């Protein structure tokens, strides 16, 4: 099993060459087609959506903004093609999408394109003028598109060997199952897969059954994935803390987990594993929802 089509979100940031090279290396691994997606959200767009823009943008302002975006897009497309071809990826293309005056934001633009691909790659660079993503953008895309999203942290060199040693965060939820299904090509190629079950001693009912992790380990074995199960006690620590510590201790290079077992609003207000892991992003992380 492999991915046939990858979509990589391309931003005008210093970290983008590493993200593009990583996506190209993955495409070469599976002999997949890779599509670069550049999204443009005009600076006035969010103000229009909320009615806070003091004066409606003039046709001239709109035209100038779009012309500048198109010029930047053309240069980014040329750079993208050169980088993926340098990684021996023959099949590639480019897509430009603008929110215009529709009120759409970056996550929606990516999700609309993601539905026609097997895997979405999104980098998390340090914020810049042309970065319109946030920490939870990848999880929103996964939810809206029903596609797995691989999130890459800022790094000096491409993650060409990611997916060799994978930690799976398992909580018996629909979202975790979708993440595993979306990650199967990575899991089948991995040298080691460590499935982590975190038991909360204060929970009234455990979703994990008599032998936590055994059922999903059997499912993965039927797909040719050998899994080692680790059962961790929370001991009052957050799931995010435990996962980060476990990743460090095991030397994992990739995390796979479900996104938003609770509502996004609840996680934003009260804090939650998805938001915390995507904010910390200790290693490349594949999320499903």
From TrEMBL:
Domain UspA positions: 164-287
CDD domains referenced in this protein's UniProt entry, alphabetically: USP-like
Pfam assignment, any one: Usp
Gene3D superfamilies documented for this protein: 3.40.50.12370
Domain of life: Bacteria
PANTHER family from the UniProt entry: STRESS RESPONSE PROTEIN NHAX, UNIVERSAL STRESS PROTEIN HP_0031
Similarity-based family: Belongs to the universal stress protein A family.
Protein name, as recorded: UspA domain-containing protein
UniProt organism field: Salinisphaera hydrothermalis (strain C41B8)
The organism's taxonomic lineage, starting at the top: Bacteria, Pseudomonadati, Pseudomonadota, Gammaproteobacteria, Salinisphaerales
